[in-house]
Amino acid sequence: MLVVIGLASKKVVNYPDLNTDITFANECSVFMKAIIKLSLGLCGLVLLAGCEDKVDHSKIRQDGFVYCDQGRPSTFNPQLVDGGITVESIAPQIFDTLLTLNSGTHQPVPNLAKSWQVNKTGTEYTFYLRQGVQFQTTDWFTPTRTLNADDVVFSFNRIIDPNNPFHQVGGSVYPWFAGIDFANLVQSVEAVDELTVKFTLSRPDNSFLSNISTAHAPIYSAEYAGNLLFSDKKLDIDTLPVGTGPFYLDEYQVADLVRLKRHDNYWRGPVQMSQVVFDISHRGAGALAKLLRNECDVLNSPISSQIPVILEEDSVVLQAKPAMNVAFVAMNTQHRALSDARVRKALNLAINRDNILEAVYFGSGEKAYSLLPPSSWAHQKDAVQVRYDRNYAMALLREAGYAHGLELTMAVPLEPRVYNPSPRKTAELIQANFADIGITLNLLTDDRVDRQELSNIESVDMLLTGWVGNTGDPDNYLRPLLSCTSKREGLNLSMWCNDDFDFILDLALEVNQPRYRLNLYRQAQNILNEEVPVLPIAHGQKYQAHNENLTGFRTSPFNAQPFDQVVRLK
């Protein structure tokens, strides 16, 4: 087996841009492997006896590949969601953005915009578009022109302008943009000429270029939108998408598959693979079983406990990369005892993160000292105190008036994510830790539990959740998850608001000197250390397993996976 992580028992291959040593507890017990293999065998019997596989794998392999992924798309518009399969896997194939992020430097580089200029005050950004970029031709739209400035204006005005006829489509909820206060930042987007667009900002913002480089900022066809408006089919813009990316949507079978076909007029040149099929019919062991039976060519984000089984397969390549993510517990600071910082500090001290890393991440994760991952340039390991101290935790509870304990409820999603391979197990370990200091933690476990669905459920004290960074900028973590603006918009589930914290974040976006910004983010993390609105748990590794006959996968530290360079070796 060819492995892209450093394991003594396997051939070692250095993965591009992988600057951090990756260790993995490959001495997984024989018992653990047996359990996983048994579950795969049972899964295979169920598949053979009880359902028909709707994907013709042999035909697809002639000119494409099957990609097994977690989750099912609720929309094909990445503007409308804050994460998941749409943002990470599907949208990067259908759409392009003005700029894109270099996976090594984390800096914005040209994409649909070939260049840009910024005025002296940092409030005007002028972008110069590439000429001759073709939109996709589909069964529902045939373009009559190439990309121009009107397309960029439409794509961003839909987000920031309540009067845009498409603003309300999809519920007028743009969670990721709301979390960074994008609508108040961008005053206007205007077409200077056919291939020139100018953004005017209300204030300088050093994260602006990075933010519009993410998969959340696709460029749509204004011509297509106009056709839908005329025919009164505005909802189709999110279910029957049209972009400029290397693949276009061909077929969607709900809960089964998403099929993309090659865009032959792609501006970078047509890609080699003529189709990609996202198999979304199985999760967990079911998806792993498909990989091992060669029914999936790629398994995205296998959980840590599955890695030992994958390592035994000679025909599978495993890629790993430190990812920009964090698992954490959001505490509703408006609730009872959780409004007291002493209680929140006690909960932070009660969690044994080393046990979680061993039992849930199998040694593949890193302890989280703050929301910022180790690969962030503003990460300060010594800025936040994270340790396991049961006695001090109990003393803080006594000081806060809870010597006899209290009862709390935590919502727990069941779907594994890159930042948390097993949310249920993580929650159970936290539950046991809290019991040791006299706190009864009731777990609300449900497949439907996620950040957006719980944003208005006031009965929940805590939510086990996480965040995958879209950029390398620290503002991409701190503002969406903890700012006062984000509290109003629903991403800040801690319901915590601190004016000093927000002032520091705003100031950090206005100063240009890196060392000053670093100092400001240290101050911001010091505030979090005192207030403890969230409980950082761990940072997960980004894994991807694929058939050895495929090459060209680029495992990004962010949450977008491009397929434009994937080829099948003969």
From TrEMBL:
Residue ranges occupied by any Solute-binding protein family domain in the UniProt entry: 107-487
Gene3D superfamilies (alphabetical): Dipeptide-binding Protein, Domain 1, Dipeptide-binding Protein, Domain 3, Periplasmic binding protein-like II
Record GO terms (molecular function): peptide transmembrane transporter activity
Highest rank taxon of the organism: Bacteria
A GO CC term attached to the entry: ATP-binding cassette (ABC) transporter complex
Biological process per Gene Ontology, one example term: peptide transport
SUPFAM superfamilies reported in the protein's UniProt record: Periplasmic binding protein-like II
PANTHER family registered for this protein in UniProt: ABC TRANSPORTER PERIPLASMIC-BINDING PROTEIN SAPA-RELATED (PTHR30290:SF28), PERIPLASMIC BINDING COMPONENT OF ABC TRANSPORTER (PTHR30290)
Protein's name according to its UniProt entry: Peptide transport periplasmic protein sapA
Organism listed in the record: Vibrio maritimus
